[in-house]
Design brief:
GO terms for molecular function: pyridoxal phosphate binding; transaminase activity. This protein is of the alpha/beta class. It has eleven helices and 15 strands. It is globular. The protein binds pyridoxal-5'-phosphate.
Length: about 375
């Protein structure tokens, strides 16, 4: 008999009993979108939870990225990482910006600050780093480079919900940060996203842009887009805020079991926790040294699959290897040695709050061969 399917993730949903009265309220009011009651409540609740001054809700993270670039009028070239989900680079392309891929550092697989400066040209206007797997980028180093060269910084913080460093939200770094609340993320509103900004004027500009550029009934100040979050998602989101701490705690326990059990397997490695950082345990990536472990990453991936365990190779292929980008000078083979190596070694193991001990045991046994 085949064992139960284990997927890489499984979303947490709010209690239906809590959600239904909210739906009734929405049905009564007939206010479905455009900054309604639940939207306002959720924006406020999120800002408080995250420890940030301004949140602008979005229908998804990708439109938040596209709008963040519009808001800061980014043009020309932007330095970014190839080791991420495709939406990071797509958001540049949708703004007619040329992505310039920079290699990642080998410790936490984020943009390597030592390699950024060499890629700056007169056309460079911004840096778009990603806190990959929710591990903070080298924030201070990136800020220093941006300040020296007059560049903007937009963080793709899609993985970094709730992450803090030295007691402060990492979303407070850079000019803007974007979040994703897609069903597969640590915190979900089914689909959804947000931009974190640091002053009221910028928030206003973002809020105009996500609503066609309207500032009042008859005034349109920019070629904005429609990227608004609706009332159903916002209500769902306020409920999610009540259970997120518990969800992250459960993820943490699973991550710790993985780390204890996998530590003793020759040829497998994983990312250590960082001192002073409150992690969210969004992903559990492991890295396979094929010589020491005796199998390639793809062989491990297939073996897990045969055992009904559906791990994912995040992030393989590199964004720079997709047809839309592989012709770029910065995407050429050999230009991104660390990212190229890691993309061939990585596998993200299943991790989600409801992952049971028995299922966890099955995954670990399979890796112990
Ligand atoms: C999920 C994700 C996005 C896109 O967010 P959506 O809400 O799915 O549009 C962008 N960047 C990264 C790094 C992501 O993981």
């Amino acid at each position: 008999m085949k064992e139960k399917k284990i997927l890489v993730t499984q979303p947490v949903l709010p209690a239906l009993d809590d959600f239904i009265p909210m739906l009734e309220e929405i049905w009564d009011s007939k206010w479905l979108t455009n900054n309604g009651k639940f939207h306002q409540e959720f924006e406020k609740g999120l800002a408080e939870y995250l420890g940030v001054p301004y949140v602008s809700l979005f229908s998804n993270g990708t439109l938040a990225l596209v709008t963040a670039l519009q808001c800061l009028r980014i043009t020309g070239e932007v330095i970014t990482t190839p080791y991420s989900f495709v939406a990071t680079t797509h958001s540049l392309r949708w703004n007619n910006i040329k992505p310039v891929f920079c290699d990642i550092e080998p410790d936490y697989l984020n943009l390597d600050p030592d390699k950024i400066e060499a890629l700056i040209t007169p056309r460079t206007t911004a840096i778009m780093p990603v806190h990959v797997y929710g591990n903070p980028c080298y924030l201070k180093r990136i800020e220093e480079i941006a300040d020296n060269y007059g560049l903007k910084v937009i963080y793709d913080a899609a993985h970094a919900f709730g992450v803090k460093q030295d007691g402060e939200s990492i979303l407070n770094y850079g000019d803007l940060s974007i979040l994703s609340f897609h069903a597969t993320k640590v915190f979900n509103t089914i689909e959804g996203g947000a931009i974190i900004s640091h002053d009221a004027k910028t928030k206003k500009r973002i809020d105009n842009l996500k609503n066609f550029g309207f500032v009042d009934e008859t005034t349109v100040v920019a070629p904005g887009i429609n990227a608004k979050m609706n009332e159903l998602q916002a209500a769902y989101g306020t409920l999610q805020l009540k259970t997120i701490d518990d969800s992250i705690q459960k993820r943490k326990e699973i991550a710790h079991i993985y780390s204890q059990q996998l530590n003793i397997i020759e040829g497998l490695s994983f990312l250590e926790e960082i001192e002073g950082v409150v992690h969210n345990y969004a992903y559990y990536p492991i890295f396979i040294d094929k010589d020491k472990y005796g199998m390639t990453r793809d062989e491990v991936y297939e073996k897990l699959k045969k055992n009904n365990i559906f791990a994912r190779r995040y992030f393989y292929p590199l964004i720079s290897q997709f047809p839309s980008y592989k012709g770029l000078e910065s995407a050429k083979k050999g230009r991104l040695p660390v990212a190229e190596r890691v993309a061939d070694e990585v596998i993200c193991l299943p991790i989600y709050p409801d992952l049971g001990k028995e299922e966890l045991g099955r995954i670990i046994e399979c890796l112990k061969k």
